[in-house]
């Protein structure tokens, strides 16, 4: 597992190289010692880096982290299957899907807590549009691209949805999509 990232030109900002390199080293240790819990797919999904001039190009790092996350998720699912059973994987998917569908069953514009009139949060309209796509996937088996969920961005708006709740929900959707992807024969 080898990663070399291009740097942002001049004074353009990119991810702090020391932080990225430290994370890649942890991922390398996990890869070399798969039975140890050095870093998980969930941790990779939620990693954040500081920015600095001349840092690593954001898109290149994000793409590498996505590949690592997918690889680690596949290994975690395979480990669950080997240590428990295929039914354990199916049960995990069902539990996560039930949580997702519970949130999706809420009324349009009320799926998540709002920030209030004075604070800004994610645009309720944009989040609800993504929720329609997610609902169609889980209820009607419509295709849903993992990367489109992973890279979803929302405008900031007053009285919007609380970002932490939406982000946690998206993490659950990504987890479910990874389980689905790695449960296919």
UniProtKB/TrEMBL annotation:
It comes from the Bacteria. This is DivIVA domain-containing protein.
């Amino acid at each position: 597992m080898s990663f070399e990232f291009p740097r942002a030109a001049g004074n353009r900002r990119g991810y702090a190289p020391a932080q990225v390199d430290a994370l890649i080293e942890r991922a390398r240790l996990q890869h070399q010692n798969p039975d140890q819990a050095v870093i998980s797919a969930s941790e990779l999904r939620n990693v954040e880096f500081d920015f600095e001039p001349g840092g690593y190009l954001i898109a290149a790092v994000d793409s590498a982290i996505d590949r690592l996350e997918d690889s680690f998720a596949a290994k975690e699912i395979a480990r669950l299957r080997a240590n428990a059973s295929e039914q354990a994987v199916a049960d995990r998917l069902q539990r996560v899907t039930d949580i997702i569908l519970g949130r999706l069953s809420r009324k349009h514009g009320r799926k998540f807590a709002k920030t209030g009139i004075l604070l800004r949060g994610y645009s309720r309209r944009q989040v609800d549009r993504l929720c329609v796509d997610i609902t169609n996937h889980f209820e009607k088996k419509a295709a849903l691209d993992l990367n489109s969920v992973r890279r979803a961005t929302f405008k900031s708006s007053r009285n919007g949805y609380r970002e932490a709740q939406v982000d946690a929900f998206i993490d659950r959707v990504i987890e479910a999509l990874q389980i689905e992807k790695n449960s296919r024969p």
